[in-house]
UniProtKB/TrEMBL annotation:
Cited SUPFAM superfamilies: P-loop containing nucleoside triphosphate hydrolases
Matching Pfam families: ABC2_membrane, ABC2_membrane_7, ABC_tran
Subcellular location: Membrane
Coiled-coil segments on the chain, per record: none
UniProt GO cellular component terms: plasma membrane
Keyword field contains tRNA-binding: no
Domain ABC transporter: 75-317
Principal subcellular localisation of the protein: membrane
Membrane topology: Multi-pass membrane protein
Species this chain originates from: Sitophilus oryzae (Rice weevil)
Residues that span the membrane, as ranges: 406-425, 437-459, 479-506, 518-542, 548-567, 579-597, 633-651
GO molecular function, one term: ATP hydrolysis activity
Name assigned to this protein: ATP-binding cassette sub-family G member 1
Similarity-based family: Belongs to the ABC transporter superfamily. ABCG family. Eye pigment precursor importer (TC 3.A.1.204) subfamily.
Amino acid sequence: METLLHEACKVPGEDSSSVLDKSSVVKVSESTTGDALVICNGSREETERCLEVKDGAISNGTVFNMQPSDAPIDIRFEDISFTATEGGILQRKSKKLILHDVNGRFPSGQLIAIMGPSGAGKSTLLNVLSGYSIQGVGGKVYINGNPRKLKAFRKLSCYITQDDRLQPLLTVNENMHIAADLKLSSSVSQKQKQVIIDEILNTLSLSHTKATRASGLSGGQKKRLSIALELVNNPLVMFLDEPTTGLDSSSCKQCLELLKVLARQGRTIVCTIHQPSAKLFEIFDQVYVLAKGRCLYQGGTERMVSFFRDVGFPCPEFHNPADYVIELASEEYGPEKIDTMVTKSENGKSLTYFQYPEKLLKTGSTGSAIFEDDSGELQATSKLNQLRVLMRRGYIKLKRDQTMTYMRIGVNIITALMLGTLYLNAGTDGSKVLDNYNLLFSILMHHTFTPMMLTILTFPTELSILIKEHFNRWYSLKMYYVSVTLIDLPLSIFCCFIFTTIVYYMTAQPLEIVRFSMFFVSSALVVFVAESFGLVVGAYFSVVNGTFLGPILTVPMMMFAGFGVSLKDLPTYLYWGSYVSYLRFGLEGVVGAIFGLNRQTLDCPEEQYCHYKYPKKFLEDIAVKPDQFGNDVIALVLFWFILRIGAFVVLKYKLHSLR
Ligand SMILES: Nc1ncnc2c1ncn2[C@@H]1O[C@H](COP(=O)(O)OP(=O)(O)OP(=O)(O)O)[C@@H](O)[C@H]1O
């Protein structure tokens, strides 16, 4: 590590470790020689001071902060209403008004709490202000006095959900690098990214957990990592839904103090919080109290007690004002008190209780290109880069995933060995043709249920991460979807190949390369189709509903496959079913591979009756045409594509409907 004071910024008489100050501005740029980074600090009034860092290393654990490079953001909202639509697909829809024309001001550089009892509408207001909710929203949001342009605003803000939606298999450092590679422009070098990551991890006291997987972090560390990931692109506005939920009191304090530091650097930080202790309450600069979707109080934390006095409900001595306001908002002292307070606060219009109301009134329209820029892509990097980074992340996850990788390979080997033992040498035995046919169907069942159920069970977890990352503009849905499709393909092929090889060999199927290839291709296509079907179900339904619906919806596929009831015995009015059953084409493919291609008469052991020793007769009886392999492949590929596109449409609809 070689750390030198940058000559141009050098402050005589000071040693390098004292140069960078925690509360100062920091800029990161390339040195003039191009082989080092120059990191400068200094408040607006001070002269800049810089450190030069080589090989991505920062001097002796120095802590420093990033200050947003753009102008601060003041949020003002007027007459915000939110109407939720209730009722399922087949139910009558009803409307429910949740926010009742609330108003408010969230100034920059402040840590703001949205408080209120459960069900008051805190999360709903946060969703509306962040732009997450777009349907059923009324009223206006202004950014620095100008009407909010949603796309431009989303580029400057981030939303941190209540539950920590992290990639559990990736380490803290890997999670941060993925975020940096997706959220920072490709022109930022890896060295610069490393400096930014180190700085954020230092500030959030996560440096010592760099090599720990996210699944191994404590609740507080997970929360801080969630914040760290969104800090990578230095947002001006941060919305946090209940950041203290599930944390002990010291972690809560640490988390809120950290948010306050970030706010002081010029960000607007808004979080919902349930009922903070007096100590936590003091950390906030401003509170916005909601009750039944209306604003009870808006202003400085320290001025809330005088508000209670002015409104005629003085806060009892030694009572935590945060507890008292929740008691009032929960109607513990009568419902009329809420009306009185809503009237006094003018449903959020009154600025009387702000720390510096006169400053707020002066805040006019400060136009800036970045607030107006509603054009271009939401994501910071190209589609190709998004795909590359997502593939890299997918590969790391695949390497470490016990369920999706190791269990899947294990299940394929074990099932293949079990079937191989059960139907040992059935492939050449003329007396065991029906057993062999049962085996082929069992193989297809395995290829249907294993990938389908795995996808249904695991995708909903991925979906919650996708919703967060997609909203925070990490990547486009298309690139995410392409990466999911591509990353799984090699493993699916590998598992199918191992399975097919073991079963094929143990059950003594004809050892001909053409037959084996046909068998493998049909099996692999059934796997792809079943996986895609699982994705459609997993993308729309919860794990519970998906686990129920996936197998249920597969039953008709089995019925129409031509196995239990042969296709020639299917009633004509039900024959259409055989065209929508992908298993029919899979079965035709594997049966054709084993019994088609003019297969010779099968061996018949002595003293045994071999009803089906002539494969042609068997094929006639089960009504399977052995020469349809090409059509079977085309049909299965079509099913695969249609279901993949279907899953994408469902996913897009799901993301849209949630908003
Ligand atoms: N999409 C929706 N459909 C129906 N009702 C909704 C919807 N969204 C919110 N609500 C209702 O609106 C009210 C406010 O919900 P919200 O989640 O904003 O409350 P909250 O103050 O954040 O509560 P908590 O602190 O318990 O999270 C609740 O009664 C909730 O049931």
